Amino acid sequence: MTTIPKPPMYRVALYQLCLLLPIGSILLLIGDARGWSVMLGGLIQIVPQAWFTRQAYRHTGARQAHLVVQAMYQGETGKVVLTAALFVIAFVGIKHLNFLVLMSTFIVMIPVQWFFTVRMLKH
Length: 123
Fold this sequence. Notes:
By secondary structure, the chain is mostly helical. It has one domain. The chain is built from four helices and no strands. The chain has helices spanning 10-30, 33-56, 65-93, 99-122. The longest helix has 29 residues, at 65-93. The two termini are 22 Å apart.
């Protein structure tokens, strides 16, 4: 039993989605490739990071330290593989993407994730 509660890090992905979905939806209503590119770029960053967060915070406590380390390695490996797979699916499976918008959204979501993570850990 641990006395340190797990931080609610799953909320970071929810906050990112709350930021991404309105912007992406507005661009989707306009009806060009930017909407899909924004949505996919954001999701390609959010989904693998949510997977890592799930894996990393499964175990807590000093007695489970080996499980924590193992889960982090598995989470990071899964995150990299999932990110690569999602990029391949996006580039191969969707013909009308704006590459610059997709990559920009992916990159912008990283500091957004850091911002929400820092805020979450401070409280």
